[in-house]
Each structure stands twice: as structure tokens, then as C-alpha cells.
Write a structure and sequence with these properties.
288 residues; alpha/beta; TIM Barrel; eight-stranded parallel β-sheet; two-stranded antiparallel ribbon; globular
């Protein structure tokens, strides 16, 4: 059964329409927009622009996991990058739902105290044993993404080894992340799952995940899709420049929507909002 709502910190996000999660990379080295929004004013302006273009939520990150040469940063540096952005956005857009993209419990704890609602942990709570408890204490929404390895290699092919049933392995590893969260006290309703397109996955693995996504969405958790500008889209469409992969991203998102995904993490909010709303409106007619 596809999830109908997602609980976060005293509010619920209804999943009766597609939810657009806009990406705010406050980094010098992210794979497609690194450095574009590295200053606090640039990041804040970009975030406000994403909201104007139709984003429902913002995902703010200060550490890149790009496929080539990602370098881990300290908690102090990550906070230096993202905390001022969070603080400004809580003043300028107080109704905005904010997520932080981090694998560090100290970073999560500080930004949750500053007004963030969601922790997006791309390690699925693997890399910091204290992360689950921090999220539980705050009542935060949690995005548990499937990945393997650490920050520096999780987006490479180093750990992209699967047997005959790729999706079964991904679901089993996500179940381990869910268990970690629930054992720490995170309520089931606060948990969303992300199959981690492009993370420890070759293009054929990401395509398989999308083709079999119903196996994940039927488990009843909100499902987040992060296809935006990914390498597999470039390979399928023969587009080498990540920023030019908007059309391919739209196609992948619509496929995922029809399979039950409801939350879409994107760089380009306006085309995502428009395409997903049209696909949703047609699909609602089809399923009546």
C-alpha cells in the first residue's frame, strides 16, 4: 500500500500529490552545481527561488558525495556552510519545510535545533551510530537512503556488486536501516525510504530499481526519488552535461510517480512541479 502521509516534527506532509524537494548544495564540489551556491547569500537566494518555482521542501547539504573525488569534510566545516543558510531561511521562509542532507549526528542535532524538520541520511544511518537517536529525540522526519561505502566512494561503482535480484538486496539493506531507526525510537510514520539511484549502482542497476520500484512503494513507506541529473540519465539520453539532463530527469520522475513514489529530490523545481502535476492529474483519472 502506497503511503498517504509523512510525519515530521509536529506536522504531517500529505502525499495526496507529488512533493518536490528542491536541492540546495552549499558546496564547492557537488557534481552538477558545485560552487554555484557556495556563499550564504547565493544559497539562500537559490533556495527562495526553488520555493517560488514550486518546491514544497528544501534539502540543504554541505558535503558532496559526487561520483569523482568526493572529499569528506569535518562537522565544523559542514555547519559553517549550512547553519547560516538554515537560520536565514527560517526567517525569510518560516513556513518552508527544511531538510538537511548529512551523515553526521552533530550536524543533524544543531540544525534540528535551528528549525530543520527532516534529516536526509544518505548512509541510511550506517556511518554515525548516534544519528538515529538524535532524530528520534527531535521527532524529525528521516530519509533513509540505500548506499554502500563511505562519503568518498558511495557514488562510485566500487560497491556496485549485486546478484540476480538487485531490488531484493536493496530492500533488505533498507530494512536494516529501518530497524536501526525504529530501535532508536524513530516512529514508523516518520521514515521515508530512498533507493539511492546512482549510489553504489551502475546505470543498469538504477534502471532496474525504477522498473521494479513498486516492490518498494508497496511496503507502505513514503518513497523519495533522487534521479535529478544523474549519470544513468546521461547515459540513456546521450547527454554529457549534467545541467542539460532536465528532460531525462522528468521522464524518470514520472515513471517513479506511476510506481508509487511521492517525493522527488530535484535541482530544477519548475519543470519537476509542472510535469509531475500533469502526470498526477492524468493518473488520478486513470485510477478512478
Amino acid at each position: 500500500m502506497v503511503a498517504r502521509a509523512w510525519q515530521l516534527r509536529g506536522r504531517a506532509i500529505a502525499l495526496d500529490r507529488p512533493v518536490v524537494l528542491g536541492i540546495v548544495n552549499v558546496t564547492p564540489d557537488s557534481f552538477s552545481d558545485g560552487g554555484n551556491f557556495f556563499s550564504v547569500p547565493a544559497a539562500v537566494n537559490h533556495a527562495l527561488g526553488l520555493l517560488e518555482e514550486g518546491a514544497d521542501m528544501l534539502d540543504i547539504g554541505g558535503e558532496s558525495t559526487r561520483p569523482q573525488g568526493a572529499t569528506a569534510v569535518s562537522a565544523d566545516e559542514e555547519l559553517r556552510r549550512i547553519l547560516p543558510v538554515v537560520e536565514r531561511l527560517t526567517v525569510l521562509a518560516p513556513q518552508a519545510v527544511l531538510s538537511v542532507d548529512t551523515v553526521k549526528s552533530r550536524v543533524a542535532e544543531e540544525v534540528l535545533g535551528a528549525g530543520v524538520d527532516v534529516v536526509n541520511d544518505v548512509s541510511g544511518l550506517r556511518l554515525d551510530p548516534a544519528m538515529a537517536a538524535v532524530c528520534a529525540r527531535a521527532g524529525a522526519g528521516v530519509i533513509l537512503m540505500h548506499s554502500r561505502g563511505n562519503v568518498s566512494d558511495m557514488a562510485t561503482y566500487q560497491h556496485a556488486r549485486y546478484g540476480d535480484d538487485v531490488m531484493a538486496e536493496i530492500i533488505a539493506e533498507l530494512d536494516e536501516s529501518v530497524h536501526r531507526a525504529e530501535m532508536a525510537g524513530v516512529p514508523r510514520g516518520n521514515i521515508a525510504l530512498d533507493p539511492g539511484l546512482g549510489f553504489a549502482k551502475r546505470s543498469e542497476h538504477s534502471v532496474t530499481v525504477l522498473a521494479e520500484l513498486h516492490r518498494l512503494t508497496e511496503r507502505g513507506y513514503p518513497v523519495v526519488i533522487g534521479a535529478s541529473r544523474k549519470r544513468f540519465i546521461g547515459e540513456l539520453s546521450c547527454v554529457t552535461e549534467p545541467a542539460e539532463r532536465v528532460d531525462g530527469t522528468t521522464a524518470a520522475n514520472v515513471v517513479a510517480l506511476l510506481a508509487g513514489a511521492r517525493i522527488f529530490r530535484v535541482h530544477d523545481a519548475r519543470p519537476a512541479r509542472r510535469a509531475l502535476d500533469v502526470a498526477w492529474g492524468i493518473n488520478q483519472r486513470m485510477t478512478r
